[in-house]
């Protein structure tokens, strides 16, 4: 019995609303996962993050 | 350890310099070899204390430890003996004691139900360093069904018991956090009476490889580098050698995979935290994982390992080990080539 939801649960709920964007980002990484470097999929990630921030709402 | 006698200074002399005549070193190797520190025991202790402080989530996430404890106990069925005094090393919340008081029901209905194994056991000493976790279930019903003595250990790697004082040592789901595994195994061997078994299970090998790879890829892409998120674990091949080195004989080592499906990566990480199995590797990055990495990690986990139905699998690879303390009157393997019966005949006529 926990009175308020934990931040991680709110995080998970928001992340689950962006499965389409997550799949695009995931595909971008997985298609060539032996040569991942910083910001390899930055465009796809920013789309995912924008969606996540909207889904999370508030702050 | 290396001691050095300070260099003896002699006045400079002319003539050939004699190597070794002016310097005298005294060096010796400490017994037992170097001990590598991989995990932070205090962090592990804190995590266990915290997990036990939240009783309900802690109990709910005991499914893995209960399952592994019952698999460890099933191995006792094959040993036709009674055990007056048994040690459960790294008892967590006494999962082994709980498993011992349960009947063993085989999925095949033709196999008779085996009564609780606690009847074979005189006294069970449950030793654990986290007091809150050890006493979490102290007033549940199973405590009355066997003679259970709880003992809080000062640290997980020193056994404060007399030599040759136990008829069996059990250990489930705790030895993967021990730094000095060879040392602890040798101590277990020491507290066992001759011709008595040690039966243990710990996580090893490819445990949580999905989480490990997803977080590595996510961190590599988001931040351009990785840090240890999942413990380095012992491999099956290592365990046999370790047991042998500790002096056990008649070894049995085998591996089982338990795959648990979770709705998302966050649920998996929440459960690991509630189990008290969060990261305690020395040299890990302090503080929580960044949000970007978490978000990226979940997406990669789904893409790389996800199931058809949208859940994600997490593999727990359990290494089971059995070793016996050496004794004079123990059954020993016969010499090579002394066999009189062809095994092929027996197996084919069966």
TrEMBL record, chain A:
GO terms for biological process: mitochondrial respiratory chain complex I assembly. The lineage of its organism: Eukaryota, Fungi, Dikarya, Ascomycota, Pezizomycotina. This is Uncharacterized protein. It comes from Immersiella caudata. GO terms for cellular component: mitochondrion. InterPro entries: NDUFAF8 (IPR034595).
Automatic annotation (TrEMBL), chain B:
Keywords: Methyltransferase, Transferase. GO terms for biological process: methylation; mitochondrial respiratory chain complex I assembly. SUPFAM superfamilies: S-adenosyl-L-methionine-dependent methyltransferases. GO terms for cellular component: mitochondrion. GO terms for molecular function: S-adenosylmethionine-dependent methyltransferase activity. The keyword Transmembrane does not apply. It holds the Pfam family Methyltransf_11. Residues 119-195 form the Methyltransferase type domain. PANTHER family: ARGININE-HYDROXYLASE NDUFAF5, MITOCHONDRIAL (PTHR13090:SF1). This is S-adenosyl-L-methionine-dependent methyltransferase.
């Amino acid at each position: 019995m926990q009175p308020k939801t934990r931040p991680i649960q709110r995080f998970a709920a928001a992340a689950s609303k962006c499965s389409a964007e997550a799949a695009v980002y995931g595909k971008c990484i997985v298609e060539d996962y032996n040569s991942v470097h910083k910001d390899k999929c930055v465009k796809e990630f920013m789309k995912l993050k924008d969606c996540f921030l909207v889904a999370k709402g508030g702050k | 350890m290396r001691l050095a006698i300070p260099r003896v200074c002699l006045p400079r002399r002319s003539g050939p310099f004699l190597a070794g005549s002016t310097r005298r070193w005294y060096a010796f190797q400490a017994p037992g070899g170097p001990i590598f520190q991989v995990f932070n025991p205090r962090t592990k202790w804190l995590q266990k204390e915290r997990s036990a402080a939240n009783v309900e989530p802690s109990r709910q996430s005991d499914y893995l430890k209960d399952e592994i404890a019952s698999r460890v106990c099933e191995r006792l069925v094959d040993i036709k003996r009674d055990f007056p005094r048994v040690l459960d090393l790294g008892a967590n919340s006494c999962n082994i004691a709980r498993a011992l008081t349960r009947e063993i029901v085989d999925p095949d209905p033709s196999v008779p139900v085996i009564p609780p194994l606690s009847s074979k056991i005189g006294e069970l000493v449950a030793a654990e360093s986290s007091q809150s976790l050890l006493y979490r279930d102290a007033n549940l019903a199973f405590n009355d069904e066997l003679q259970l003595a709880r003992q809080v250990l000062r640290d997980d790697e020193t056994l404060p018991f007399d030599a040759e004082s136990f008829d069996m040592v059990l250990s489930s789901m705790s030895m993967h956090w021990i730094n000095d595994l060879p040392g602890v195994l040798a101590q277990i061997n020491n507290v066992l009476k001759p011709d008595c078994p040690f039966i243990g299970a710990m996580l090893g090998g490819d445990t949580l490889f999905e989480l490990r790879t997803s977080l590595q890829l996510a961190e590599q892409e988001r931040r351009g580098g990785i840090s240890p998120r999942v413990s380095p674990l012992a491999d099956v091949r290592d365990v046999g050698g370790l047991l042998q080195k500790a002096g056990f004989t008649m070894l049995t080592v085998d591996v089982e995979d338990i795959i648990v499906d979770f709705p998302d990566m966050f649920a998996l990480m929440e459960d690991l935290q509630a189990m008290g199995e969060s990261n305690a590797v020395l040299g890990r990055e302090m503080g929580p994982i960044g949000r970007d990495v978490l978000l990226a990690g979940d997406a990669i986990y789904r893409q790389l390992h996800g199931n058809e139905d949208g859940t994600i699998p997490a593999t727990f690879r359990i290494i089971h080990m059995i070793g016996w303390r050496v004794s004079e009157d123990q059954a020993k393997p016969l010499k090579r080539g002394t066999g009189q019966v062809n095994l092929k005949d027996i197996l084919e006529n069966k």
